[in-house]
C-alpha cells in the first residue's frame, strides 16, 4: 500500500499525518481513502475529476501530471497545497 502524507491544513490537525491506502493511481488512492474515511480529503484535493489547481501531489518526490498518474506499491505520496501571499 502507498502512504499518503497529508499536511495539517488539509486534515484539520496540528501536524502532518500519514495514512496507508491501496490504489494503482492517484485517483484510486483518493477514492479508496474516501470509501474508508469519508470524502473530505478527496474533496479538498480533487474537483471535477482533476487535481485542484492549487494542490500539488508528488509520488516518490516527483510531481504528478494528472489524476491518473501511476502509484507504485509502497510509494510515498505527498499532498501539498500551494503557498501564496505577500507581494
From TrEMBL:
Transmembrane segments: none annotated. InterPro entries: Beta-grasp_dom_sf, Mopterin_synth/thiamin_S_b, ThiS/MoaD-like. It holds the Pfam family ThiS. SUPFAM superfamilies: MoaD/ThiS. This is Sulfur carrier protein ThiS. It comes from Halorubrum lipolyticum DSM 21995. The lineage of its organism: Archaea, Methanobacteriati, Methanobacteriota, Stenosarchaea group, Halobacteria.
